[in-house]
């Protein structure tokens, strides 16, 4: 085996409250496509951000061509020939292809002006080298997404990359475009470039990958030759997390149907989704990022309008034109991005809790003295929100912020709660508190839709689990039948 | 007292302190400053900017900006003048003037909310359209000469206090209650603090944003009434640069251009600082050219101090 071009050894990185990487190794041969696999949150992105200099590692070492490389920032990574192609491309839409390729490094004349002729010649040569039929003078925004991606790759190679990281490059491409991209990848490895390839599409992995490294919970699980490992084995390796956490789910006899959706669809994001939710039930919704779970939550909460399908509350068909309509039907959404969507950061707790209930508190618009406090205080006590009543909510911890968002809906006697990633950004102690609150909600006859990317949470708290893939429901499990491997298999779009 | 309101109070205390220091300096420099007639004069001159700044404060707290207020002052003023000279009764003429202000604000707000355009662009366009409308309507000529009853809106007194000052206090009192004690006031802050979260809380952000610009149009029209009465003339070029004075008073008063934070008490003190400064510089015989430079420096200085303090606090 030739000497590795890149070696990462014992990489460690922790963020407040969570160890993201715990001694991860990765080694890359020149001319290799090395697939990096793992669930959401397994540590793939963190590892690549350390490689590209976006994060600093806490411990471990990085060797490039056998020599220790001290990567302190993005500049160091670029100087060592490491390039990352992110899902959101770093290109300027209104500049030409050639200008984008040489952005910040354009050849200049002796007067300091851009040497346009040389710029276009060099861009044309580079594109031809890569076998790309793209005119250098064309404005970037007129290209398809696949071609833009190839321009980004050409830009990376213009600076002589030796390691190229591709993060889910095919997620938005058609199958013909995928073929074009893979042809380019084949030419790159023939030139000796080493590629780290991150994807969730296991079918692709075998088409272009040589070796695979699986990460799980920030740990290195295995590195294998793809010719020696089956799809089923890979899924097993990704899934088999130890369920160290305790999930205090208290099951309740499901009662009457609270909510039913039939054939719900919206654009490319959601298609033909049907299910029902009963009182006392936690319905888990699993799937990968971009599977349409958040879109489903937004449609049910009246934030986005569906193109197709129907929503029934207590057996009655309803149409939501705005979030207020869903709130009036006692549906409460606890969004994934709490800071951007869940609360007003400058507002104190009571004002956030009272915000959806203005009409109830002040029928004529004039708020009676302390009416918001009177509404909020019992909830603050019941939910054990820690923080003074005068503290802006942005200064509270993640767990307490989540309780404030919950309090907002409890104040309106909501009966259907949609928790989108209920414990993201919440520390371990507060997680259990949130789970206990969910138990109390279901015990009192509420129904919960819980979207979660954390398999242990999904399996530990749900009574039933829907798994979504590309906007559709791929599989449904009763909690007794669900295993991590089965849920993950469905989430990856493989037959279940 | 609660912690966040203590911070707000500390900020307002700073603005008040600035006003006190400024007044003390002027008192020391010129004997004419600290006299009852002069102070009433300052209050009267400040009233128009102070009233326009009420609407600006609502708009800026909600995360927007309204550049059309000066033009609305002009159009409402000439409509009022024409109505009075056309023989309309005073209440009818006032209703026409205020109605025009509200309509201009509703147009601003509707385009911003439903068209999804930035407030800066929409109100910049309206600034030109409304000004043009005032010029077209009057063919560029002022409408002058009104009866004493109307002029008493500016020249009248109540217990020695000029009518415009009383009007200003009334507007601030009502607006303060609206901003702090009504659901509408809460939504103004909520929209400026986090528009998306406010929308997801079931608040009709579009409707309330439109109303916020209507408030701005309404108070601009009120300022037009006082201005027209005081000058005994309605001019299509009235109110030029009022938007900048109103923004300055709001910002000096501690309202954040980022939205979500601010108060009317601060804005009132901010307007007084600008009024006292202009008056004092006049008394000291500082040329009006130089005055512009001083006022510009005060605006930047006030916000700079605010920013530095905020950074320090965090």
Task: Tell me what you see in this structure.
The complex is a heterodimer of chains A (496) and B (314). The mean pLDDT of chain A is 90. In chain A, 45% of the residues are buried. In chain A, a hairpin with a 2-residue loop joins strand 4 and strand 5. Chain A has 18 helices and 20 strands. Chain A is of the alpha/beta class and 496 residues long. Chain A has helices at 44-51, 74-79, 97-101, 116-129, 145-158, 175-190, 202-208, 231-239, 293-300, 323-328, 338-342, 349-354, 358-361, 371-382, 398-410, 428-443, 455-461, 484-491; strands at 6-15, 18-28, 33-37, 59-64, 67-68, 82-85, 163-167, 194-198, 211-216, 219-225, 257-266, 270-278, 282-287, 308-313, 316-318, 331-334, 416-420, 447-451, 464-469, 472-478. Chain B is mainly α and 314 residues long. Chain B has 13 helices and four strands. In chain B, the strands form two sheets. Chain B has a two-stranded antiparallel ribbon. Chain B has a two-stranded antiparallel ribbon with strand order 2-3. The interface between A and B is medium-sized, with 36 and 26 residues.
